[in-house]
Predict the 3D structure of the following.
Amino acid sequence: MSQVSAVEMPTVGDFARVFRRIQSEIHKVIVGHEQAVEELLMALFAGGHVLIEGVPGTGKTTLVKTLGLALNLSFNRIQFTVDLMPADITGTRVILSGQDGRRDFQFQRGPVFCNILLGDEINRATPKTQSALLEAMAELQVTVAAKTYPLEPPFFVMATLNPIEMEGTYPLPEAQLDRFLFKVKLNYPDEEQLVRIISTTTGPEDAGVEAAFSPEEASMRIESLKKLVRNVIAAPAIEQYAARMVRATQPANSKFVSDSPKAVHEETVNRYVMFGSSPRGAQALILGGKVRALLDGRANVAREDIEAIAPSSLSHRIMLNYAAHSDGIDGSHIVERVVRSIHSARPA
Amino acid sequence: MFSPRQARKTEEKLGLIFGRIRAIRIRLNSLAWQRGAFGALGWLVGIGAIIVLAAFYLQPLMFLVVGAMLGVLAIAGVTNSVGAAWRMHVNRGAAASIADRRADLKGRLETIIELGQRQKVIKLRHAPEHLLLWSYLIEDTLSRQEEFAPARIEARRVSPSIYGFLGALVVAVAIIPLIARLRSRPIPLPAGQDQMTVDLNDLHLRAADSDSDDGVEVHADARTMRRLEDKLAAEGAAGRANSSDTPMDRMMNHAKDLAGRLQDKLTGRAAQRARITLKLADNSEDLDSLEKRPPLKLNPHRKGEDADAHFEHPKSGDDSSSMPNNPVPADTQKNPVGGGTSDDTSTPEQRANQSDNSSDKSADQVSSDSSSNGGSAHGIGADPDTLFGSPADPKLGGQGFEIAIDARSETKGPQASGHAYLPPKVRTPLNSSQHPDEPIARASVPEEDRDAIKKVFER
């Protein structure tokens, strides 16, 4: 019997309650960034990973650390640098002496063996090192010297990107970007939020974050909630809606977004997009939609959920051409246009 | 996995939701078909009313064109209405989707409908584990059943398209008295004239023009009729000889005939033909034979085999056809169409003049009720020089008209002389600094230099 089945299956109400509680604990430390925090938690319960992009000082690392505290899960941080090697992430085999004096190769686990992993400034490492995370993120396992080591669930990777210091950085390859369920942007706080940040971080006392779960049951509870998310019903029409949206981001298929005569041919996609979203984008849409449905107290995914989750699910999966860069168009612009187009093609 | 009892309860609740959606669907489809029916009827009634009205006012060819255009418009309108109704028609899934949107149920009903179909195949009690939230969804949706009551999803029972239909009906009803008035209206006589006098020999019979007004019935004495028939036969043969009917003309005539017949049917004018009563000026013929002679009916809309203008012998006689061969005093003869009195004002001298012009010394006097200007003489035709008698005839003097042309000579402008317009020269006094524009006086060449200058120019 698995650990999950040992815990009673949570209800829709339980999910929303736990989610809101974790959210409120995080907001004890993180001022503002409500949407970012919500998307971060949604990715966690959907079983995905998150890429956080933001200028320095916007609380990326603090956010991730606070999440680890609130969930009471094991947390590791890797500061990605140019000289970081894959073995520094996954672990390596070292010669150790046993009690009997014999020396043997033993696998020393790297920082990837944890529940929550923060890859800080992931674009500073070489592609080879970045790729070391691929297997862990996609398959929850690490292979070292032809031996596979499973990771303990839940495994949640949060990588941060610094968009302004681009010298000496290595942009993430598309294959790795695709493995992140959501890309969350952290913008500068507004004045009111900034005042609150100053008052909470410069005082004598730290904000005390209470863990939502006890250390023993945290993993099981989170896994049971993740299973509940998977049980949310997505009607075939909703799955088709998500598929249609993903296809609309692909230049070759953008004109086939709908059979409806009202369908709008998305000219922007043809002009600016080199490669559209992969099928993982559709999976992200449905999984994100399921979490949103549970948060809304529903057991079914609605089109509104898909549309709401589309920018963070698809924008980082769209590869733009030079025309887009010169015209100042980014992935979120494209997704916004696609969502509008698909929405207008919905039956009246 | 559900217990059988749980499954039965869930199925009952599912049935309730399905019932609601069915009711919503019925209501939506009812509105859709109302939209189609009212829209189509509105178009038909409206266009029909306009066509009937056009039949009264338009000439046959114009009526045919306008009628065809209106017909196409009606077909397009009906097609559009039916198409719109078909597009509004919803199946169960679409009804659920509409209910979701209008009740803000976030796809609950649509999901239930879609997966409910599947549940019929996979019985609920054997539902797979991934549908653990199925019963929750049904329960949750049922708890909101007030929000998707049919009356809340679609409050209307009658489609708004009924207003369009009622509007068309109002237009049609408004036209009815107008049509009734047009039908009962007598054919107006020309101002100041209720009778015409023409010499039968001056009549030129020609092909009936169905584009003009209605046909006429001709009533006359036996001798006049005989002469008319002879003339008709002669001119009909000549007309055939001279006829140059092209296929286009024939087609146009067919179209006109068709339109005329259609107009007659729509307006009921067929039974309302104008009548011309031919009066015999010479009473030498036996009156008894005239009584037996049935009236001739002249129908310009139908072309006969013998002549281009057609005379029909109606089966039943008409009282007004039994004309005396003497001119009847005006106060004793009723105009059959106009309803006014037939006033034969021709003087004996005028009749004598007319007789002189005719080849037959016993010229008949033809009297017409002049139902319309030219329309009453339709199909008969006349020589315009002699149709109304001599120019001195005071009766017919008012038939002509003059166009006064106010003309004056134009001295200016390019049209007047054929040359471009030149402005007149104006001389103004010169001021102190101006000099008259005079040619320079020729310079005198000294005698001794003349040879040298001459050489220079010759070289």
Summary: The interface with chain B takes residues 9, 11-12, 228, 230-238, 293, 296-305, 347 of chain A (CB under 8 Å). The first helix of chain A runs from residue 3 to 6. Residues 259-264 of chain A have pLDDT under 50 and may be disordered.
